[in-house]
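Q: What does the predicted 3D structure of Transcriptional regulator look like?
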Amino acid sequence: MTDTTTDRPGSVEEITAAVALHVRALRQGRGWSLDELSGRSSVSKGMLVQIEAARTNPSVGTLARIADAFGVTVARLLQPAADRSVHLSDMADAPVLWRGGRGGTGRLLRGLNEPSFVELWDWRFAPHERYESEDHQPGTREMAHVLVGEIVVTVDGVDHPVLAGQTLDFRGDRVHVYRNQTDSPARVVMVVTMPPGEFDRRPPKQR
């Protein structure tokens, strides 16, 4: 299973540069050192140095941890410097932030940072493919609507089968796994909602 950013020529460099710009600006705007951000996000200082220097293409899990620490969406880390009040985008322009080992993809279609924190995703799972997600910021919820095929979502060790036409709503602040256990592809539209505010992953005694 491999994480990547996108298939479009030139987009990897553009997105890597955008992430570097936003992470550095958000960190410096809060007056945080690299060590502080590392502690809050549980992302190593070395990785943060690479990200801010635009020398690496971070995984979706790493981006999610950094976004949680800042209290923003992953999309906020990817957006162009000048955003618009009305935004129309094509599927082909949406970055692929996850690629499964069997050909599946997780594509971030759009994210909002105000007035609510919301992300819209398109996930495609090849037969017998899975995606393991870490817990998100407390209060995060996920809604997964299956368009094609069927999947099983495991939340806190409990399996929840979801068929085409069904929608599963659950707390995303628990460890969860998406699996396609069938011999046919599955496609899922996912909405993630997050509460405002920064998230410090360090235990209280370490803050």
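A (community wiki): The structure tokens above were generated from the sequence. The chain is about 25% helix and 30% strand. Residues 1-10 have pLDDT under 50 and may be disordered.
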